[in-house]
Amino acid sequence: MITSLIMAGGKGERFWPKSRTNLPKQFLNISGNKSMIQQAVARLEKLMSIEQIFVVTNELYAELIRAQIPHLPIDNIIIEPSGRNTAPCIALSSLYIEKRYPDNTMIVLPSDHIIKNESEFVEILRTATTVAERDGSIVTLGISPSYPETGYGYIESSKEVQIVNGMEVHQVRCFVEKPNVITAEGYLNAGNYYWNSGIFIWKSATILHSFEAYMPEIYRVMQDIKVKMDAGLLQEDIHSEFLRMPEESIDYGIMEKANNIHVIPCKFGWDDVGSWTALDRISERDEFGNVIKGNILNIDTKRCIIESNNGKLVATLGIEDLIVVDTDDVTLICSKEKAQEMKLLLKELRIQKMDQYL
């Protein structure tokens, strides 16, 4: 049985002020006429039924998920009581899914990615599940880099290659952290480095053994949670156990340590939409390189991202390489080169106790 887990608890802070605590990025229409999480579910429904799709989030977003994906069974919404990074999130969800579908093969993926070639994506997932089931290995999707990106982690592959369903499947040599520009250029030229998509495929037994081997503290808590789940105890009891898990990412906790990982090189039009500058890559631009949305009047404006979400006219004159976003209560003006540092503004809002703008 193939299942999927969509991680949807993030706040999308680098997309502020459009992405807010009460309505984060994954619930917004960034590209197309559906929200990002709606697109993620629709893609997976080409591979499996809605009953096999699970979403993990926090209580704050559970109602948003029910509203945006009304046909998703309520029991398929997994609530984590506190955001503790991806390893605890995946550990808790694995127990729920394994209880429903024993010995399943799970696809784990974020809720806020853009994928343009969905048919290619689905076929690659079919191959990934085949490899995961056959070898009992962890499989990840590596995005073939098109430029020296410094905002992504990378995956280095070895020379060991097998062909499955006509696709190359490489042995992973190691996961590496976000590089500087010179290092990223070296990765691009080497030809055996891929962007880390954060998409993983494994059998339930494989990830359980991986937690036991590489994250024993989380594994012990998982065993305690399983006992309470089997006893039919209330969610509050399970959540109290969850809070004992250390805050850690699945990449650092398992992927950087395990030796049974394969990567499938991919080119299906992927973007993680990590910040406002992603719109340059995924949106249409005018003849001056601008991405425009809303009621905008611009003169002598070049390579800007300008968005008005409230119908108010935004007029620009003689500006270049800026991000201008106007909402009901906030107007953001930011240089593109600072787009990755949006959290500095949010930190200052918290310091000044201006939480109404978060």
Automatic annotation (TrEMBL):
It holds the Pfam family ManC_GMP_beta-helix. The keyword GTP-binding applies. It catalyses: alpha-D-mannose 1-phosphate + GTP + H(+) = GDP-alpha-D-mannose + diphosphate. InterPro entries: GMPP_N, ManC/GMP-like_b-helix, Mannose-6P_isomerase_type2, NTP_transferase_dom, Nucleotide-diphossugar_trans. Coiled coil: none annotated. Gene3D superfamilies: Spore Coat Polysaccharide Biosynthesis Protein SpsA, Chain A (3.90.550.10). It comes from the Bacteria. Residues 294-349 form the MannoseP isomerase/GMP-like beta-helix domain. Residues 4-285 form the Nucleotidyl transferase domain. Its EC number is 2.7.7.13. GO terms for biological process: GDP-mannose biosynthetic process. GO terms for molecular function: GTP binding; mannose-1-phosphate guanylyltransferase (GTP) activity. Keywords: GTP-binding, Nucleotide-binding, Nucleotidyltransferase, Transferase. Belongs to the mannose-6-phosphate isomerase type 2 family. This is mannose-1-phosphate guanylyltransferase. It comes from Cohnella abietis.
